Amino acid sequence: MTGTPDARTSPVQSVDRAVTVLEVLAELGEGGVTEIAQRLEVHKSTAFRLVTALEARGLVEQVGDRGKYRLGMAVVRLAGAVTDQLDVTRRSRAACEELAATTGETVNIALADGDAALNVDQVRGASSVVTHNWIGERTPLHATSSGKVLMAFCAPVRAAGTAGRLRRYTDATTTRRRDLEEQLDKIAVDGFATTTEELEVGLNAVAAPVRGADGEVLAALSVSGPSYRLTADRLCEITPAVVAAADRASAALGWRA
């Protein structure tokens, strides 16, 4: 980190740093000026100016009087505007709401985002007591039902998801590439994927592909919930409903089987 404030900073560099501040807070949840300055490798006064400018636009807000900052509600509005523009999100909403009502569990729509699955929409069912909001979160392809669906039906996503070391999140996470490849081949035949406590202990899920008008898989539609409720038997029981909902979402996007 530099020892003196930046004398001259280009507008482009300032924008880049401001975006980095948002990314840092998204990663940390909340952080102070000193912490942000260290992550940006800039003087504290520079970090403070950036945070103050972002706060003035509602993109950042202070957490009480603890000297900490977090993302502001303006970020939520911007994210919502982007989500609303996604055809797959708008057109699959009815299918997601119906599935959430039928199963009582949380329904998510995820898109491929490099080597991760990006959750872009969520509907909570009546049985869901979890307050976790998955929207905007990137989850590992190899440890989630949505990620495995995206890999199984899209070669570039499969290549991205199997390129590096497969990180272990729980004892149930698939970390051997050969095992993962075998799973993906089976998913491509079965038309759905299930995961039992592979990303988090106590979290199970099942997902199916959502296709565009040309038949290409655009997204994954999933149902997730606590393992004590979404047992192996329950996952098998709701899988046909998940596949049917994904097919309805695909039909809304113009796909015809």
Automatic annotation (TrEMBL):
Keywords: DNA-binding, Transcription, Transcription regulation. InterPro entries: GAF-like_dom_sf, HTH_MetabolicPath_Reg, Tscrpt_reg_IclR_C, Tscrpt_reg_IclR_N, WH-like_DNA-bd_sf, WH_DNA-bd_sf. SMART domains: HTH_ICLR. Transmembrane segments: none annotated. It comes from Kineococcus endophyticus. The keyword DNA-binding applies. Residues 12-73 form the HTH iclR-type domain. The keyword Metal-binding does not apply. Residues 74-255 form the IclR-ED domain. It comes from the Bacteria. SUPFAM superfamilies: GAF domain-like, Winged helix' DNA-binding domain. This is IclR family transcriptional regulator.
